[in-house]
Amino acid sequence: MRAILNRCRRLLWRSLFYRMVFGERGARGEYLPHTRVAPSTCIDGESGLRLADHVFIGQFNFIDATAGLDIEEGVQITNFVSIVTHSSHRSIRLLGRAYVEHTGPPPGYLKAPIRIGAYSFVGPHSLIESGANIGKGCVICAYSQVRGEVPDFAIMQGQPAVQIGDVRHRDAELLGRYPWMAAHYEAWAGELPDLHR
């Protein structure tokens, strides 16, 4: 009997608290009917989040938007991802116990907005650091630590992440097999990939 009750409790918890539903609100209150954000994702500084439609944000992510965060159309953020627009670890290390009483800007404190370009994918357990500017159509591989500029269509991997490829190679192959998708691809990418790259 106890096992049945436990199973029912887990099913009820998952259905009520981890269920993703379509429809979010953007920063200006506009309805985003195709956007989904998992209820287990923690968003700090939500007023700084500029969210587009067709975005998917999975389970158990930490998203800090206090310094400004743009997540453009079609972005997919998987699970266990951290996106941080500020970092105090250097300041705390430098100031020690004096950090909590320090007045004025703490030395070494990092704070900068982040942008994740349209139709980019962020793999599980990745870290997007303060000031990162990720171009459109990028793939951030699992366990990557991203900082700075990431060019459009880059495949990024590592800690810190470095570019290991370009998604347009595979996109060109797929569009060769499914040519009817070319108009959809071009609508957001602005160009079709060269089939001879």
Give the key terms.
single chain; 197 residues; alpha/beta; 7-stranded mixed beta sheet; 5-stranded parallel beta sheet; 4 helices; 21 strands; 21% helix; 27% strand
Account of the protein in words:
It contains 4 helices and 21 strands. By secondary structure, the chain is an alpha/beta fold.
Summarize the SSE layout with pairings.
Blueprint: H1 2-17, E1 24-25, E2 31-32, E3 36-37, E4 42-44, E5 49-51, E6 56-57, E7 62-64, E8 69-71, E9 76-77, E10 82-83, E11 86-87, H2 89-95, E12 110-111, E13 114-116, E14 121-122, E15 127-128, E16 133-134, E17 139-140, E18 145-146, E19 149-150, E20 154-158, E21 161-166, H3 168-177, H4 182-189
Parallel strand pairs: 3-6, 4-7, 5-8, 6-9, 7-10, 8-13, 9-14, 10-15, 13-16, 14-17, 15-18, 16-19, 17-20
Antiparallel strand pairs: 1-2, 11-12, 20-21
Q: Mind telling me the C-alpha Rg?
A: 20 Å
Global morphology: globular
Structure summary, number of beta strands: 21
Strand order of the largest sheet: 3-6-9-14-17-20-21
Number of H/I helices? 4
Average pLDDT confidence is 90
Query: Major β-sheet, in short?
Result: 7 strands, mixed
Distance between the termini: 62 Å
Proportion of residues in extended strands: 25-35%
Order of helices and strands: HEEEEEEEEEEEHEEEEEEEEEEHH
Spans of at least 5 consecutive residues with low confidence: none
